[in-house]
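User: Working on a comparison across species. This one is Carboxypeptidase regulatory-like domain-containing protein from Ottowia beijingensis. Can you predict its structure so I can line it up against the others?
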Amino acid sequence: MSLACLAGLPPIERPLSVPGIEAAPTSNMEVELDNADGALTRLWADRPPVRRAARVRAGGGVLFAGVVTGVQLGARVRLSLEAGMDRPLSDNLPLRTSAVWGGWRELRVLPWGWGQVTVAPIQYSSDQRVFALLDHPIQGVDEVRRDDVATPAYDWRNGVDSTGRAVSFIELAQPLAEGERLAVTLRGRMHPDTGRLLQTPAEILHDVLAHLAGAPVQWADFDDYRTETAEWVLGGLLDDNTVSVRAAVDQLMQSAGGAWSAAMPGIALTWPPLPDDAAPALRVDRLAAPELQAATAATGIVTVLRVLYDYDHAAGRYRRAVQLRAPDAVREYGALEQEWPAPWLRTPRQAEALGRRMLAWLARPRWRLGWRQDWADVATGSWVHIEHPLAPIAGRHRLLAARLDLSGAELEGSIEAPVGPVPAIETTRLSTAFEPVIQAGITVEVAGSEIIFTARDEQGKALPGARITLNGGATRIADAAGRVSFPVARGRHVLLIEADGYPASEAVVVV
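Assistant: Here's the predicted structure for Carboxypeptidase regulatory-like domain-containing protein from Ottowia beijingensis:
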């Protein structure tokens, strides 16, 4: 329906979300409608228009399109609108749980996964042989581990669950024992037409928004971002239905080092922005913006960055990390450390490339420019060319936030950019030095009535001084060769391994 009763149009907010640097909400605005006679109260008393699509029109066309997220009734009605999608991105991820099967041993969220990812399967059959992998078909299974030991005794398939939903399963040759851990490394969602694995940032982002969140985005919307990130390979899981769609996209974009806005043409872009001298740009000079302000602060500078990556969803932790340092910035500003979670990244090369790109931006002071100028209906993320005598930075930059003041016919824009030479960056620690992961590195020897266990790290090196606890009871300290001995019976035993500089880890051995 059309309502020709606009009483006020507060500004349209168009922020760009740069996860890890400046995450932001979706573009939004509020609309005031005249309700002096109570007509809208009567109209919407029983059926308020929340979650309904809405468009704000003017003589020149549509000013704003989105969905109604809130209604306030009074002499004036205020509608809160969120842009870009036909459902609020503040909605939680619409992931099912194992409750849909009518019976379950443990209530679990049924996840979606992309690229190569390791998951903890969800029990499907009562005999502990059939497990659900992901809540959709997958491309294949690469490895199955039972208590950290690889096994070939399994079969996987894409099938239909008891509700008629297409899901993926694994069936074990032997039932899973009580307390035994099962981890499956698999290749997740595929392109519906070609069967090709979806694993680049643009492919995954489109699939999350279009097919999981049900947003009205098209494959072609991501053409530019697909070109920018064609060489990036990600792998990850969405398995928490208490997280909003916006937060899930933020996590994905932080892993890829990107920025996004649902209302921006192209949806996403690489951050820091890749240069594009041919793209049109809004010119900001003394004539267009007589008043311009620039500000910087001591906060926000980072000189040491740790990228956490290769997240293992079965174990619930990151498997690897890389630490980078800008030595000149450390000498000037001190060691200012920050961790950069990138759970979707899988390779050391891309983790290091991401860290270098982000640290080059973060290790320098950054100017934030703000200005007002006559009305210009530009989207956030658009190019802006700064050539202003009051600006400490010049050249082309991406619009970080655009505030369109409809009543004053003004645009309030802002950009942010670092200054000074790009710092030299060195890699100071790889994952094994920063937070090594103890794999199933236990060897077993029998010596008379005692069993000798040797603890090793992921490189196969012995762990002298490690504290090893057997079956939750006795604890012994490993000798210089990483060995301890216990008088134990033959059978299955659980060892807790604790060593300085390593996260605690469990290993299961059968003697």
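For your comparison, note: The two ends are 74 Å apart (CA to CA).

User: Helpful, thanks.
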